[in-house]
Amino acid sequence: MAKAVEFVKINKRFPGAHVLKDISFSVEEGEVHALLGENGAGKSTLLNILHGVYPEYEGDVLLHGKKVVFRDPNQAIVEGKISKVHQETLVVKDLTVGQNVTLGYEPKKGLLIDFGKMHREVNAILEELNCTFKSETLVATLTSGQMQMLAIARALYHHSTIISLDEPTASLTFREVDALFEVIRKLKKNGVTVLYVSHRLEEIFQICDRASILRDGQYITSLNIKETTHEELIHAMVGRDVAAVASRLRPSPQTDEVVLKVENLTGLDDKFRNINFELHKGEILGFYGLVGAGRTEIMRGIFGADRLMGGTVTIHGKKIPASWNTTKALREGGIGLIPEDRKTQGFLNLSTNAENVAISSLEKYMTGIFTDEKKKIKNAERYFEEMDVHPRRVDYLTVNMSGGNQQKVILARWMSTEADIIIFDEPTKGVDVAAKAEIYRLMEDMVAEGKSLIVVSSELPEVMGISDRIIVMHEGDITANLTDKNDFVEDTLLKYAIGGNQDA
Question: What is the pTM of this model?
């Protein structure tokens, strides 16, 4: 089979770091090829070289047997017929689908944009992808899954023969994932080569033909998916055996003491209503549901980040009505939130790790009216050692860390406070298997110390493996409260997540 992409002895260096070291492997034409590795293994850097983001590197990139060097992503799209579908789909929501698909490459009639031709061409592509929306549709009305289809339509508009997908299912529903996989199979049938980056191993076995694994900036091996196992892939990625499924390593320290009580909580715009539950000391309470179930909105409401229509939150016996809940009141009450979208809500992009760790407990680092930078640094160094953060540099910008290590920085921030109730919203989203295992270990350490956790997760193995109890939601309502671990079964949770009711 002919080679679509070939990397030959690729090396990439940044100041003080040798990120890619003699990477050599090939991707065949018309295959779905997984690119796997822990966060920080070099996957994104290698793709950025392929897509022209990093034009300066050592070694050769060959497309269909010919050496290429792209000076920017535009040249890669136009001349190399290579497109990338990002994890966070890049769209202009105030424009139509057609305008987004053709942005920067609009068909012209003289000096003006030929909107008729634009919509005809884009609608033909959308029809080929079995999309239910049109070129004329406003992007602001699309779901996450539809935006992913828009990004793929953009690649097809450029007649791309090589498309890379970076964590494409991170924000999709099960139905949208199925639709995406149908499109990928169709692309493959039409001879398009797909590079697929994902931390969800079940997807790799479902959609990919082969997988190439990177570890610490080095190429490890390429494996045929049909001839390998989950364990073999994980071992190749991390160099040791790591349990792919979350599982408790110690007995639960849960007590009967209620540390958090939520009563009749109702959100704005009817996103959730009359939510009632309790959290016990030492408990890990799982929240499961499909995308759009309202779980994130509830957690932001409890934390005071979003306004509420009604209800009360009681923390350690202190009742906080919806009318005056604020992040300050809740934080002082002892609640911390690790948000789902860590890049926009979890940390300050232009701040160092030490500053981001200290931001929620600045009063601890004051000397007179000034903050003591040495105290900040000492505090961050303590948690970096304890949590095995890489690189172990507190002066590093958090935005430049890998996803798993960014998550540890945010966790260190809340561990630096007096918070004893921590809400984890999608804690391992976009995180590799080794970092997942480390986060689960830290969760167990926290409850052993007397803290209480709420874990919101869309991953069934995670919520079943780590939780003492599971609350299931559907479209803003609680449909089940599972206390018996014998009920922690995929079919049971899915039944309640799609609208079945435990009390029915």
Answer: 0.68
Q: Which residues pair with 5 in a beta bridge?
A: 27, 63
Sheet containing 32-36: order of strands: 82-85, 162-166, 193-197, 32-36, 210-215, 218-224
DSSP 8-state assignment for residue 461: H
Residue 478 makes CB contacts below 8 A (sequence gap 6+) with 275, 276, 277, 471, 472
DSSP result, 233-246: HHHHHHSS---SS-
Cis amide leading into 391 (omega within 30): yes
- Within a domain: 462: yes
pLDDT of residue 452: 97
Burial of residue 11 (CB within 10 Å: 0-12, 13-18, 19+) is middle
CA distances for 191 relative to 226, 263, 437, angstroms: 20, 55, 38
Mark out the alpha helices in 321-459 (DSSP H runs). 327-333, 353-358, 373-387, 403-415, 433-448
Is 110 part of any domain?
yes
* Calpha distance 401→409 (Å, rounded): 9
Q: What is the pLDDT of residue 50?
A: 96
The answer to whether residues 262 and 191 belong to one domain is no
What is the block-wise mean pLDDT of the chain (504 residues), using blocks of 10 residues?
A: 93 87 96 88 91 95 95 94 82 93 93 94 91 94 86 91 88 79 92 91 93 93 94 81 71 96 89 94 94 88 87 89 63 81 81 90 83 89 85 89 84 85 88 81 92 92 94 94 92 87 75
pLDDT for position 388: 82
d(CA 406, CA 393): 12
In CATH, what number is assigned to the domain containing residue 494? 3.40.50.300
Residue 30 lies in a domain: yes
SS3 per-residue string spanning 105-174: CCCEECCEECHHHHHHHHHHHHHHCCCCCCCCCEHHHCCHHHHHHHHHHHHHHCCCCEEEEECCCCCCCH
| Among 417, 445, 467, residue at a domain's last position | 417
| Residue-number span of the structural domain to which 7 is assigned | 3-238
- pLDDT value for 285: 98
For the chain, the farthest-separated pair of C-alpha atoms sits apart, in whole angstroms, at: 74
Q: How many CA atoms lie within 13 A of 152 on its CB side?
A: 31
Please count the structural domains in the chain: 3
Quote the CA–CA distance of 15 and 63 in Å, as a whole number.
29
Per the CB < 8 A criterion, the answer to whether 400 and 344 are in contact is no
Report pLDDT for 353.
Answer: 92
pLDDT, residue 160, reads 93
Would residue 223 count as lying in a domain?
yes
